[in-house]
# Entry
Amino acid sequence: MIDLQVVRENRRNIGALLLVCGGIAAVLHWGQFSALTFKDLSIMDGALTSIITSLFVVAVFAERSVEVVLISGRTPGRQQIEEQIKRLQAKGGDDVVSLRRLAEEQERLDAYRLDTARQAHCLSFAFGVMISLVGVRALSGLVDESVLEGAQKTVFALVDVIVTGGVIGGGSAVVDKIGRKIRQAFDLSAATDSTLDNTRSSEPQRSDAINNASA
# Structure
């Protein structure tokens, strides 16, 4: 049974979800998008390593660029607030007014740091999108692009730019985590294949042993 209260409280989210689903359905209907074929990842180990390594290096460069921009633009303001906090602490006032001013300055510093972090995320994503826009792509190395035509090719390039930009904007730590996850998947697949091969090779020997015992 549908809870009407929950529906009313989340009507905006539900409306947005329905709008997105409707848009996707329209694109699939009129755009005639076909399913993509992934490259054989079993023989792409080296290619994937190359992609991850390249993204890692680019992400490191992007991180340093963001730091340079933020240090020059945000550090002076932070230092001014920190100096004001030090002056208030040096006075050592225990009255209500002094403590309130100190608390206000500390809150101002926290808000300034949060704003700096927000700007860093936005700037990192913008840098990542610009880098991806000029040709550094991740998804295009995983699929067969020969089947892409018309609107699907354009939309795929757009998605690739956004996804790759987000990965680069997330920093080298994000790229490293992705690389480790992929490596774990390959190691697990290799271990599973080895186990299956050992099982298949042992089956004829087991059958021979049973036949000999019966004879």
